[in-house]
Amino acid sequence: MRRGAEKTADLMVIFGITGDLARKMTFRSLYRLERKGLLDCPIIGVASDEMTVEQLVQRASDSIKETGEDFDQKVFARFAARLSYISGDVTKDDLYDDLTAAVKKFKRPLYYLEMPPSLFGPIAEQLGKAGLLEDALVAVEKPFGHDLTSARELNTRLHKVLREDQLLRVDHFLGKEPVIELEYLRFANVAFAELWDRKSVSCIQITMAEDFDVSDRGKFYDSVGALRDVVQNHLLQVLALVTMDPPAGAGADELRDKKTDVFKAIQAADPEHYVRGQYAGYTDVPGVAADSTTETFVALRLEIDNWRWSGVPIFLRAGKSLAVRATEVRLFLRRTPKLAFLPELTRAEPNQIVLRIDPDPGLRLAITARDDGTWRPVNLDTSFSTPLGEPLTPYERLFRGALTGDHSLFARQDSVEETWRIVQPLLDNPPPVHSYKPGSWGPTEADALIRGHQSWHKPWLEKAP
């Protein structure tokens, strides 16, 4: 946890505790925190389903076991003892009367909203009306708006009852260990810090590839698309951590100030440097419109107009039904001059720094060696899990950060609005969508986007030793 974190919450209230996110992530993550001795407050679940506390405990047990998590009955018993439940309509006063009675003896509750974005405003307003927000924190899951205008409108609505320092905007990518380690990797190691700018880096590629399709999320995904789903939030947040200057202090706002500085230096994206794709068969998915032009793949070019990165092109790509599942950041260093001391005047291949975020987080340094008169690549690889041990999972870290008031793991209003500003022209003037074959690397038009620079590289996948 960063120094300067706020006071610790003494109660967690989870709106939507019977939902899909709770089944897949919430119960498991809280159980893991319990096992590690990092959970120390009661938990009130809120949802519309009529059920008893005993039924909620059974649901929690079933959910944890379904994830494949090692199940310790003693640990679960401690976790289950923290649970209570309130049912009702989150838009009606009756629910908040019951909640007031349950919350009144606590000083600093955390309200975690695992709810559709359309309910963020109504729930916050009801909590304010009931007088339950004075010293509270409120965490909301993405998406935070669907464009710049809606993000600003939602911020305005929430700020009528909440201060900015009470609001935690959740992006689970910010809870991933290698994403967090970017700050330390860059600034704690001179070997990297001295290379990390336009003098040494010729271009940056960030890839988020998924080898699965939209599955049963057709109705949701068709209203969102890849740009809104993963670029405006996940990939731009990663880009900021890759390219920001060192924070001036250990407080959360020092970190978020530097990230926002990066966003402000990025000009709005140009639709001329944007490629959209849709995998063949997408329109056959239940819930997807037969004539849908929603993108399941995007590739775009950005530039950061500041002293550190001016002139360095940045290429982002993300998509579903691609060849592999992998998320990585790849920095290409500039070429050396021609090596006149060799029998043939030649140049070595440029070095690369690769940070693998998923799967098996790790770091690769790609260098070049001469072997019997032939250039060959030499990769220096390390897996973070080997020397550092098993990290907290993203939601473990986010729940822990929310409960302890560590705001560094959450997006601030200005950065959210800046990232929407960056992608807004792509939403306003989207180019045609190109079909691509499932299991490929997306439409071939994405290759033209990067012409004249390093070609798209396949992600580093082999498990580091």
User: Would you tell me the overall average pLDDT?
Assistant: 90
| Radius of gyration over all CA atoms, rounded | 24 Å
DSSP strand tally: 15
**For the report, how would you describe the main beta sheet?**
9 strands, mixed
Fold and architecture overview:
- By secondary structure, this protein is α/β, with parallel strands linked by helices.
- It folds into two domains: 11-141, Rossmann fold (3-Layer(aba) Sandwich); 174-393 and 412-450, Dihydrodipicolinate Reductase, domain 2 (2-Layer Sandwich).
- The chain has 15 helices and 15 strands.
- Helix 6 links the parallel strand 5 and strand 6 (167-170).
- The chain is globular, with a radius of gyration of 24 Å.
Topology, pairings included?
Layout: E1 11-15, H1 20-35, E2 43-47, H2 53-66, H3 73-80, E3 83-87, H4 93-103, E4 109-113, H5 120-129, E5 137-141, H6 148-159, E6 167-170, H7 177-187, H8 190-193, E7 201-209, H9 218-222, H10 225-243, H11 252-265, E8 274-279, E9 297-302, E10 314-319, E11 326-333, E12 352-358, E13 362-371, E14 374-383, H12 385-388, H13 394-404, H14 413-428, E15 433-436, H15 445-449
Parallel strand pairs: 1-2, 1-4, 2-3, 4-5, 5-6, 7-10, 8-15
Antiparallel strand pairs: 7-11, 8-9, 9-10, 11-12, 12-13, 13-14
Binding site for substrate: 172, 176, 210, 229, 320
Catalytic activity: D-glucose 6-phosphate + NADP(+) = 6-phospho-D-glucono-1,5-lactone + NADPH + H(+)
Domain Glucose-6-phosphate dehydrogenase C-terminal: 184-456
TL;DR of this structure?
The protein folds into 2 domains: 131 residues, NAD(P)-binding Rossmann-like Domain (Rossmann fold), CATH 3.40.50; 259 residues, Dihydrodipicolinate Reductase, domain 2 (2-Layer Sandwich), CATH 3.30.360.10.
